[in-house]
Design brief:
Length: about 220
Amino acid sequence: MAASRVDLVLPCLDEEQALPWVLGRLPTGVRAIVVDNGCTDRSAEIARELGLLVVTEPRRGFGAAAHAGLEAADAPLVAFCDADASLDPAELPRLVELLEQGGADLVLGRRRPTIRTAWPLHARLANRVLAARMSRRTGIRLHDLGPLRVARTADLLALGLRDRRSGYSLEMVLRAAAAGWSIREVDVAYAPRMGRSKVTGTLRGTVTAVADMSRIFTEVSR
Ligand SMILES: Nc1nc2c(ncn2[C@@H]2O[C@H](COP(=O)(O)OP(=O)(O)OP(=O)(O)O)[C@@H](O)[C@H]2O)c(=O)[nH]1
Ligand SMILES: [Mg+2]
């Protein structure tokens, strides 16, 4: 990959335990944009000490953080990755290659758990139901929501994503498909997160995610 072809958005809510590993895994040509979503730990300091770009987004929510990162991106391609060390940024070049050479417009990392405990059963089942619904809606066979993903920055901004909570990733897939984008999947490793779980490991996180995603299916027209 050429220098700084990809800006990698890392939405971050108290990930000081995971961040050093994640930031040590950046491939050449990838610039990290750490979005501080109201961290009360040392996440933002860790990123600043490494000389990285830190964007502050005080409005809570995965979508608010991810979108603030997208708006700060200026490389031709933008990628997203959880900052909890469950996904490995070193796998990004394969996604980028498929986008650039395979004619895809959005490449999603299909999570393949490294060990059983990486992906709790209820979360895996919920994701399977979600993937089936996404496939039916988009007409594209999809297996995973794909939190590690890459697309063209300008095109993504033009999609006009509106969700600022847990529906953001789904809205991106549905609006991309509705705009006629080619969406492809690549297998990526999924390891147990470092630090405290916020979504799949908590009742509140799971309920919010299900509610937000159901709303997105209703709101985004075919
Ligand atoms: N859940 C959540 N995550 C946020 C928020 N803002 C930023 N993030 C970051 O978004 C990424 C994804 O969130 P995770 O908490 O890993 O969500 P998940 O992978 O669905 O579930 P767990 O890993 O089980 O918590 C992480 O890097 C978070 O730090 C927010 O308001 N809520
Ligand atoms: Mg996670």
